[in-house]
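Input/output pair, single chain:
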Amino acid sequence: MFVTSNGEKVFVIDAHCHVWDARPSNIRNRNGQMFINTFFGAHNALTPPEDRWTAERFSYQGAERAAKDLFEDGHVDMAVMLPVYLYDFFNDGFNTTTQCGSLKDLYPERVILNGRIDPRDGGRGLDRLERDFEKWRFTGVKLYTAEWNGASRGYSMKDPFVVPYLEKCRELGIRNIHLHKGPTTYPLDYDAFDVRDVDYIATNYPDLNFIIDHCGMPRIDDFCFIAGQEPNVYGGLALIPSYIHARPKFFAKMLSDLLFWVGPDRLLFGSDYAITSPGWIIEKFMDFQFDDDTAQEAGTQLTLDVKRKILGLNAAKLYGVSVPSEFALPKAA
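Output:
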């Protein structure tokens, strides 16, 4: 949790976390090396110098190190784990459900483990989804539409082979669907991250929650107009708050647009750990305020209640987390 200078306690759910393995022994090819190099470049560009890691430290965390970074040093009460497999680039996968599950094994009450699906896997993938669900009983899954899979270099949520997977999620009671729609990472293709398939699928499945990780960045405008009309679309802010240090005006512009079009009740904080640590981001976010012009554009100032919602309360609602009364909003709000 984060405690303000006035003693106010803020419940924090980091809704976008990974435990990955990009050590040289696990890198399959040049694409894997360039992928982690791109991530490390973002780490160095966005993270304050005193919080930067070495390349070796960045390439692998392990469950115990991740727990320290998140729960001891990062102000995080609960972490939502989002697997990204990338077997085309990494021998044993980049960030698998099993890897993420190792953190849940250590802290079962503090970790929300999501599954992972790739609709291009057909019946074999559906069988794996059922087996994974029986093992972990997750209530959310991650889809990475730009991931390479053999000859395929990405897919759209409009593709017909997606439908059986969403129907299977319905059947199993999996309601939170995380879609990676963010910046291009080498060698993945820009168009495979296109956010403009979200309204199609959200309209067709109004009983599912679609959390759009990275809010379609840099296609924030497209995301804002889609989420503005689709009440079951949520903004996963991962990576966006990371700009609060290096480019605070850019961060303020993105967040003000999101608050105006989507509102404070459908935005979820995420650090995108281990691209960087949540600790310094949360500290800077709690100190951050819009100037008067930006607050007018956003339709709200960044009040403590708004920050409480973004940092944890919104994710708690989606995942059915019971938040202690000391962290709740005042009843009048």
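The CA atoms of residues 85 and 94 lie 5 Å apart. Residues 30-46 form the longest helix (17 residues).
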